[in-house]
């Protein structure tokens, strides 16, 4: 598709994104295409699990699809249902640790579905200005950056390591690298006219008191909305023995962060192959369909 053929922003109804507009939750759904298996960092809360139907959390997926398989799967889904308004790429690894597959998938989907909302979620490390420009040309409208600190010491406690090209960073150096890349990514996202969401994972005792600082900084950069997501202590991760933030901590934090930037309060902590309305669990027949498309 040439830039001239690309849909104009007005032809895509951005209000139908259920994550960004609570009112669209009961009428519109999203689909995540799991085309990005690798990651360029290791978060201390992440354990990616493939071929799983019963768990609902980021990093979990039934299978991995190539860009062509993802399009074939999407076409089958769109024949079956008329409520899918958003196609997103959110892992199970990071979209820009798998940049070729990510960009090819967006190109194929945009060509086949000119009016659908395109969305992505990344840790920001591999998101270069050139990719942001290409995303803007494809009318990818919603970009989420997960940012867990603006202080390298705090962020360094959350990332076990981060890999930039061939160099591995750990501890505070990893935190510093991630913060620099994430802030730069937010600047480009806004410069190229996209909607920027910031996800911050609330890790009790590590960054819970610091998260309002993130809100303050990103609000000054034009971030549109923030999603403070409670840690889901997950087996076989460094944070498996921490306690999940309770409602009181979540509420207090969102209230403080809300002084700076709008807060999302209805996140469902979705799988990397989530489909349908936000509350909809992965069904056996979709599990079978996606697996059949991966063969
Ligand atoms: Fe897992 Fe995402 Fe962190 Fe990568 S960026 S380690 S996929 S949570
Ligand atoms: Fe939306 Fe949250 Fe699910 Fe992402 S994880 S698709 S923001 S509800």
UniProtKB/TrEMBL annotation:
Keywords: 4Fe-4S, Iron, Iron-sulfur, Lyase, Metal-binding, Nitrogen fixation, S-adenosyl-L-methionine. It comes from the Bacteria. Pathway: Cofactor biosynthesis; Fe-Mo cofactor biosynthesis. Residues 25-268 form the Radical SAM core domain. Its cofactor is [4Fe-4S] cluster. Involved in the biosynthesis of the iron-molybdenum cofactor (FeMo-co or M-cluster) found in the dinitrogenase enzyme of the nitrogenase complex in nitrogen-fixing microorganisms. NifB catalyzes the crucial step of radical SAM-dependent carbide insertion that occurs concomitant with the insertion of a 9th sulfur and the rearrangement/coupling of two [4Fe-4S] clusters into a [8Fe-9S-C] cluster, the precursor to the M-cluster. Belongs to the radical SAM superfamily. NifB family. This is FeMo cofactor biosynthesis protein NifB. It comes from Thalassobacterium maritimum. The chain holds residues 1 to 295 of 436 of the full protein.
């Amino acid at each position: 598709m040439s830039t001239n053929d690309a849909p104009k922003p007005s032809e895509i109804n951005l209000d139908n994104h259920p994550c960004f507009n609570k009112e669209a939750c009961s009428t519109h759904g999203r689909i995540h295409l799991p085309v990005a298996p690798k990651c360029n960092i290791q978060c201390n809360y992440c354990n990616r699990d493939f071929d799983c139907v019963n768990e609902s959390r980021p990093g979990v997926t039934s299978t991995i699809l190539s860009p062509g398989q993802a399009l074939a799967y999407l076409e089958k889904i769109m024949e079956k249902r008329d409520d899918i308004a958003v196609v997103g790429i959110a892992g199970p690894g990071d979209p820009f640790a798998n940049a070729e597959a990510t960009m090819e998938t967006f190109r194929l989907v945009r060509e086949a579905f000119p009016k659908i909302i395109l969305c992505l979620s990344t840790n920001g490390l591999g998101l270069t200005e050139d990719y942001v420009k290409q995303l803007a040309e494809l009318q990818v409208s919603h970009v989420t950056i997960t940012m867990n600190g603006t202080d390298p010491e705090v962020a360094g406690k959350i990332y076990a390591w981060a890999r930039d090209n061939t160099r591995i960073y750990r501890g505070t150096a990893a935190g510093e690298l991630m913060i620099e890349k994430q802030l730069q990514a937010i600047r480009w996202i806004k410069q190229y006219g996209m909607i920027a969401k910031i996800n911050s994972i609330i890790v009790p005792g590590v960054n819970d008191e610091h998260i309002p600082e993130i809100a303050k900084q990103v609000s000054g950069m034009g971030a549109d909305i923030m999603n403070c997501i409670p840690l889901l202590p997950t087996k076989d991760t460094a944070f498996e023995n921490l306690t999940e933030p309770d409602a009181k901590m979540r509420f207090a934090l969102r209230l403080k962060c809300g002084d700076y930037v709008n807060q999302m309060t209805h996140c469902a902590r979705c799988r990397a192959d989530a489909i349908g309305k936000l509350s909809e669990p992965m069904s056996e027949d979709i599990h079978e369909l996606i697996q059949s498309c991966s063969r």
